[in-house]
Amino acid sequence: MENITIPEWARELDCAITVCDCQGVILYQNERSHEVNGPMEGQSMLPCHNERSRGIIDRLIREGGKNVYTISKKSLRKLIYQTVWRKEGVIGGLVEFSLEIPEQMPHYIRS
User: Fold this and answer.
1) What is the pLDDT of residue 2?
2) Ranges of residues in the chain whose predicted pLDDT is under 70
3) Do the Cβ atoms of 35 and 18 come closer than 8 Å?
4) What is the residue-wise DSSP string for 33-83?
5) What are the beta bridge partners of residue 36?
């Protein structure tokens, strides 16, 4: 299993952070990710996803990029932000941030 360094501040962050390698094996979960998904370090995340989602994961790991969307789960709205992480420029796997968002939220245009 890849040894990655995660900053200490991420451990208690008020959003779920899950990091996996290029095979989908979970390398790290912060406390919020444990609460939402259960402890999964060392296990593959792929069985938890449907065929369409596994295709997106595969594409991201091969090509890079990001997958961003919102969901509703247990009466909460969440923003899911998935993107590759790199080590010395080479894709090492994926990181997913899952943030609770309000039903209505302001949108600002800044220049």
Assistant:
1) 66
2) 1-2
3) no
4) HHHHH---TTSBSGGGS-HHHHHHHHHHHHH--EEEEEEEETTEEEEEEEE
5) none
